[in-house]
Amino acid sequence: MTLLVTGGAGFIGSNFVLDWLAHFDEPVVTLDKLTYAGNLANLAQLQNDKRHTFIRGDICERDLVAKLLSTHAVRAVVHFAAESHVDRSIHGPADFVQTNLVGTFAVLEESRLYWNTLDATLRQKFRFLHVSTDEVYGSLGPADPAFTELTAYAPNSPYSASKAGSDHMVRAYFHTFGLPVLTSNCSNNYGPMQFPEKLIPLSILNAIEGKPLPVYGTGSNIRDWLHVNDHCQALRLILDGGRPGETYNIGGSSELTNLEVVHSVCDLLDKWAPQNSGKHSDSIRFVTDRPGHDQRYAVDTTKIRREMGWTPAHRFFTGLEETIRWYLANMAWVENIRTGEYQRWIDRNYQTR
Asked: Is 83 labeled as catalytic in the residue annotation?
């Protein structure tokens, strides 16, 4: 039996594939379109590993998805494939609707058709794990309790709305068709191999190169930070012991403002990659806030802690140190993914701010 991982060349997906094969010998088929954020170099260490098969393709290609499911005797789908950056969804929401809604429907429907061909034992063992985000719950006030699995959905960006729609479709496939689905909603991830449009890698790389460090608004927006390795461990536990039809929130219990995060990056780089003069924090620049910017996310992880015995192994500042050291040691990886398309995006998003 085999795992099918969609979006497995992206940041979280590739970390999951590497983590899975570090723990198990069960083969993995990775399906990824290799758009701007999909990077085959993330999986380079598996190039000669017979347990891993990479397929370049689009999750919207239903014939391809159907062929992979049947050919590889897939016993579980782990669905990461998604457009995932809020700013990009503001500039181009159509791609988010296509990938996150239409693409998720395509993988769900082909999984349902395949699942219906299995014998009773295999049908009972099959799982569809949908990896989503805490942004579907909307925004919290300073004193509001953290999001739970019962929090009403209130998405505020085209990205979070498209993910909310995909979550609802997954739920519908369980209640209507009985497909044994699982959904996880995670907080902000960080760690190795994250595409440098996101806050932490963008701050690290801009600081190293002496560029301005853009911070939206006043930097007061609060996020809960989850190390990607802790996320992967949680997903393994959910896939193994999660109850079909259930949702599990995954968070790092590390609430910080964006400005606190950027200052933490600067403080560490002042020690490991100091500038000729001044501190890295001198380069912080407050830029025009993005439309509909959620003020605060916080995730209540009581359910997964109680049912799975999971707790995050990384404290934020230790994990941040590891992450910065990884980027400093892997600048060749960074240069390989800095295409003209990425640079044009940076210019488009920040130049007028």
From this structure: no
